[in-house]
Specification:
single chain, 312 residues, alpha/beta, Cobalt-precorrin-4 Transmethylase, domain 1, five-stranded parallel beta sheet, binds S-adenosylmethionine
């Protein structure tokens, strides 16, 4: 605290808000954010508000207050968000902001903000902009000099990473893999050498195919977790290698239900050496053989994942 206060005026404000919050005084947090910036008396604030990914208890008191105080809430799907807001007795008007109307909706929301109205942005679940709409609005607000303030909360990627038990000091958020098999496999070839932990979103109807492609591209031995239905009644964590996860998802229909996140260990040193060896073998064999055959043989000789070697 004291160290922050020495860091300059804006940090003083941050420290005061933090201190008040620690004391349980969470009133007026929007006002504090407004007072800390250059925009006093000009535009409203765009608050980017995280909503629960399953458990309603994860909507923080501050999120509820900001949503209640906003002039309008921009929501990905107003029909989806209305029950959530009703549950908390929030009667703020809703307006739609999704990928099909983003351009027009952004112009209208920026006009409201410039007129001094406070706008809250939410998505169907979790943190807006994280594999969800909102980027254009935040970008336009920043470009217009409007204050954008986060109200952090649930995010499936971070929730999954926090419980996976895989290295979390460095990680890569990959979002959704491409839906088409060829594009997905090409992307996975690019990711095969990644040494940081990978976090991948997937939908229930593609999880089986993606697990097979991940196993083939990154190797059956790679450590991974399949986290499903986080914060909900049927929350599960399947911890195993990619080979075992692919097998389990294929044979057990329950593992294909609900929402899921895959957390996959980065490539280790041993796998590094195998891949380098595999690529050398592939290059030599490729001079004599077709790509598929060269990859198959190079993988069998070196133990490197076949799909990481194959280059069409
Ligand atoms: N913005 C959201 C966030 O902050 O996590 C993500 C939205 S994205 C459209 C939806 C994907 O997030 C799902 O397909 C799934 O991969 C993941 N997801 C959302 N809720 C989840 C949950 N409760 N358990 C596991 N994964 C979840």
């Amino acid at each position: 605290m004291l160290r922050l206060i020495r860091d300059g005026p804006s940090m003083v404000r941050t420290s005061v808000v933090f201190f008040n919050t620690m004391l349980g005084d969470d009133s007026g947090s929007t006002r504090d954010v407004r007072a800390s910036n250059m925009n006093v008396g000009k535009s409203g604030i765009l608050s980017v508000v995280a909503t629960p990914i399953g458990n309603l208890g994860d909507l923080s008191p501050r999120a509820q207050q900001v949503l209640r105080d906003a002039t309008v809430i921009a929501a990905e799907d107003t029909r989806h968000s209305r029950p959530l807001l009703q549950h908390f007795g929030i009667a703020t008007p809703l307006t739609a902001l999704h990928e099909h109307n983003e351009r027009a909706a952004v112009a209208s929301l920026i006009a409201k903000l410039q007129a001094g109205e406070d706008v809250a942005l939410i998505s169907d679940a979790g943190t807006p902009l994280i594999s969800d709409p909102g980027f254009r609005l935040v970008r336009a607000a920043r470009e217009a000099g409007i204050d954008v303030s986060p109200v952090p909360g649930a995010c499936a990627a971070i929730a999954a990473l926090s419980v996976a038990g895989l290295p979390s000091d460095r990680f890569v958020f990959e979002g959704f893999l491409p839906a088409k098999a060829a594009a997905r496999r090409a992307r996975l070839r690019e990711l095969a050498g990644e040494t940081r932990t990978l976090v991948v979103y997937e939908s229930s109807h593609r999880i089986a195919e993606s697990c097979v492609d991940l196993r083939d591209a990154l190797g059956a031995e790679r450590e991974a977790r399949l986290l499903r239905e986080l914060t909900k009644v049927h929350e599960t964590c399947l911890g195993a290698t990619l080979g075992e996860i692919a097998k389990r998802v294929e044979s057990d229909p329950e593992q294909r239900l609900g929402e899921c996140v895959l957390v996959i260990a980065g490539r280790g040193e041993e796998a590094d050496a195998k891949l380098a060896e595999g690529r050398r073998a592939y290059a030599l064999l490729r001079a004599e053989l077709a790509p598929a055959q060269a990859a198959k043989l190079a993988a069998a000789i070196t133990g490197a994942p076949r799909k990481a070697l194959y280059e069409p």
